[in-house]
Amino acid sequence: MEHFLTDRLISMGPESAMVFHKCVYIYSRLADQYGLWDAASIVKERGCSDEGFMDFQPWLIAQGKETYMAVLKDPDTLADVEIYGDCCFRGLSDVAYRAYEQLTGRNIYLDHVEAPKNVKDLYRSLKREIVYKDGIQFPREMKDLPNFLPRLCEKYGGADGSQIHPYVWNLEMSDVNALLIEGKTFDKQQRAQKTKSRKKGGTPR
Q1: Is 5 in contact with 21 (CB distance < 8 Å)?
Q2: Distance between CA 91 and CA 102 in Å, rounded?
Q3: Segments in the chain forming alpha helices (H)
Q4: Could you tell me the pLDDT band of residue 196, with boundaries at 50, 70 and 90?
Q5: Using an 8 Å Cβ cutoff, are 31 and 61 in contact?
Q6: I need a surface site. Which of 42, 114, 169, 180 has the fewest CB within 10 A?
Q7: pTM attached to this predicted model
């Protein structure tokens, strides 16, 4: 696939290679969400380290726009996606680099940095299409994942799987620790709202 994409970008010219590079870069950044990282830790064979999540993001992009958007709207829909290659496709981030270098002899990363306004405009444009699941910005402890990702946990073991492949957040990082606490509060409020809504609707006859 990497060779196919590289050859295809070469045939399309340097401008297309640059746009492809920017789109992969931006879509990866937009997928950098703790709730999605938790989902990746469930489906990947040995949990999901920092590098593992960096490999997962381009893999998700490679599944196509419809799947990418659906998973950001609800990471639990990963239960409907065929899992292969341990969800790794870091090479997707390199195909435009190779194509651009062959076409121009220049470094795509340096030329990318020289046009920050264009990158920001494209970032805003792509982000407008995305609908994120409420709470996707928070990390969670393994024991709390069945509430946030019920289908994934049922399919792949979820919290029970942590006994085999332990995956814990680094609580020594103050920002992660703060988000874990904030996420617990958010989830508690969400559960309270659902309970209140069910009571308000009454018992079905």
Answers
A1: no
A2: 17
A3: 2-12, 14-30, 34-43, 50-62, 65-73, 95-104, 108-113, 116-127, 145-148, 150-156, 158-161, 174-201
A4: confident
A5: yes
A6: 114
A7: 0.88
Look up residue 169 and give its two tokens.
Answer: 């957040």
Phi and psi angles of residue 106, each rounded to the nearest 5 degrees, phi first: -110, 165
**Rg of the chain, C-alpha, whole Å:** 20
Label each residue of 4-37 as H, E or C: HHHHHHHHHCHHHHHHHHHHHHHHHHHCCCHHHH
Q: Which of 1-5, 57-61, 86-90, 107-111 has the lowest mean pLDDT?
A: 107-111
For residue 67, give the 3-state DSSP assignment: helix
pLDDT number for residue 164: 46
Alpha-carbon distance values, 49 to 72, 74, 83, 99 (Å): 19, 21, 18, 29
